[in-house]
Amino acid sequence: MCGIVGIYYKNKDLSKHLGTMLASMLVQMSERGPDSAGVAVYRNPVGPSSTKVTLYAVDGDYDWNHLRSLLTKAFNADVDIEVRVSHAVVVTNVPLQELRAWLGLKCPDLRIMSAGSTIEIYKEKGAPREFVERFALQDIQGSHALGHTRMATESAVTTQHSHPFSTGLDLCLVHNGSLSNHNRLREQLQHNGIEFQTDNDSEVAAGYLMWQLHQGASLKQALNSAIRDLDGFYTFAVGTRKGFAVLRDPVACKPAVLAENDDWVAMASEFRAIAQLPGVEQATVWEPAPATVYSWGEE
Amino acid sequence: MTQFDLARDSVRALNQRLHESPEGRWLVLHPDGRHCIAAGVDAPVEIGVQGHVGYYCAGMNKQAHITIKGSAGPGVAENMMSGSVRVKGNVSHCAGASAHGGLLIVEGDASARCGISLKGSDIVVAGSVGHMSAFMAQTGRLVICGDAGDFLGDSIYEAVIYVAGKIGELGADCVEKEMTPQHRQSLADLLSASGVEADPGSFRRYGSARKLYNFNIDHASDY
Predict the structure, then answer these.
(1) B4 has which bridge partners?
(2) What CATH number does the domain containing A71 carry?
(3) What is the pLDDT of residues A248-263, one digit of tens each?
(4) Do A62 and A167 sit in the same domain of this protein?
(5) pTM of the entire structure?
(6) Which of B27, B42, B51, B140 is the 20 to 30 A CA-CA neighbour of A144?
(7) Number of domains in chain A
(8) What share of chain A is helix, strand, coil (3-state, %, to 5)?
(9) Residues of A with CB below 8 A from B130's CB?
């Protein structure tokens, strides 16, 4: 099972509605994934000299102000922290590699959920409706977003095992399905320098796309290669800094619905997640064809 | 006409009323992709659904005539026994799966596995169908006015497929067969009953080569 959703604004004036639309889509996918929920949101891009990471603290009472003073002292750097429940978005001029190494050494109880210039990831175990309310998702604005509701079948119900996963800078993939050649592919990708945080199959798909993008492929080209190199069942929704894409495997067992009007593109496991969106009456609604890449906004 | 608004009341309440007091004509409002709308109806009622529906709409239908004024999710009219289901839009995969009787009409396109394991229903698709349609179909007819995806009729038993457009690739043990005047007449009658306009002369017929399954047509009455 699992439910996935995605929203991408063609009309950037509507980005203030992102949180509301994403929240309603996520709640509609509750039955497909009652165990945990998560979102990747693309918003508030930072400049080339800054790093933006989303951190997750296992301890609910984590002292984020203490982290700010530690970081400021260690690097003599600008540090901006915005806390959202168990997560915090940190924007700083410390280079990512150094920040990552320092966090690993000094703050072993923090996890990096996402890194890049634009992406933020929030996820937590529990029902989607609780997630939406606790994280005040309605207030979030942004250009595009992905969401996932999880029905755990192969590993524990924890926040770390929740989706979405982000493997590369600003890249995020949500997956409904299961891959069968992920172990071998993970090894190959590790040889090529791609790092993984878990043994999850969906993370391998994200790592694969990252590798393809590193090689100079466009998101569309990377996904076309994925049809050849990934074995298994999948419906993917993928976000990059500016792009949004959807792909289903050639057998197409896992459901997907796309809807597009002049203002937005929405993707969901089921139409009912799209049925609530304002402007749906003007949207073209269709089922994405198997082994066909649909993409928007990629440079 | 009885109106039932799914924005105000549940699908369970709708189906309970359709099961307990199924009379006359019904109009279901705001389906919004919900699942199992008008499933398990067993009465000669007319039901209109005003919008898109989710999974298994009109599943197990018996006697009722159900019109969906929108598109349908997976498994529309699955296991239908009799009556009819008309979808004005497109349908997702497994439309009419295992259906025993009645008529399913899709005015748009059907996705993969349309008529999978068909057991006697007739399905008329005005548009095209996706891959693996009529997979293991046992009996009944699948009419495709547009094109068919790959592996059409894979492992088919005694169902009959009519296709007007192109076929990606035929499935295992599925072959083109002679279109006799009787078949053409039967197709013309079915098209007429479905209200789908197409020239019966433009169709080809496909069915089982009977090499894959252990069945001898001369002993059909013994099975």
Answers:
(1) B28
(2) 3.30.70.1340
(3) 999 999 999 999 999 9
(4) no
(5) 0.90
(6) B51
(7) 2
(8) 30, 30, 40
(9) 252, 289-290
